[in-house]
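Researcher: Quick test of sequence recovery. Tokens follow.
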């Protein structure tokens, strides 16, 4: 089943959206350039709250951006044209399995992430049954790396700074008990 991005059916092969315009429709895997992953520095800390989920990965297709957390679970889908959440997508809550490329009767699978030119594949369990959802062709895969700036910890205050008097190290009481 497809979580369809495109109008009509999803094309077989690599498709034009993810590859240079001068390439034909049929380009063998071993002749493709390394399209790779992108990394994005994000100047906001990943949430430490149990209720907020950090989007660690974005998978861009023609019409949607799939947001994935560090457990490889889809936590949101946004429409590229508006930036608004796509409430119709079945992928929210599904686990990312990787990518697939169908070429006739053969499918090539990549994991743990899809690559540009493949369909991202999500796995959803409903009523004890597994269901696989495929996107349209992936155009970008962006790893979001959260950067937090912290100051080094300050030195602990001395006993004298706390109490206003100094006590020799190791001596808690005077011999007379005071």
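Model:
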């Amino acid at each position: 089943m497809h979580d369809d991005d495109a109008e009509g059916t999803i094309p077989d092969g690599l498709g034009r959206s993810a590859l240079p315009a001068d390439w034909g429709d049929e380009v063998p895997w071993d002749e493709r350039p390394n399209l790779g992953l992108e990394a994005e520095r994000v100047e906001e800390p990943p949430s430490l709250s149990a209720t907020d989920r950090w989007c660690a990965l974005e998978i861009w297709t023609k019409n949607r951006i799939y947001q994935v957390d560090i457990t490889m679970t889809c936590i949101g889908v946004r429409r590229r044209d508006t930036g608004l959440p796509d409430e119709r997508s079945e992928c929210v809550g599904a686990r990312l399995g990787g990518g697939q490329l169908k070429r006739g009767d053969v499918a090539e699978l990549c994991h743990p992430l899809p690559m540009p030119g493949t369909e991202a594949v999500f796995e959803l369990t409903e009523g004890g049954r597994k269901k696989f959802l495929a996107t349209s062709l992936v155009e970008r895969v962006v790893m979001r790396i959260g950067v937090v700036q912290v100051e080094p910890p300050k030195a602990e205050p001395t006993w004298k700074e706390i109490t206003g008097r100094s006590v020799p190290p190791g001596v808690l009481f005077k011999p007379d008990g005071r």
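Residues 5-20 have pLDDT under 50 and may be disordered.
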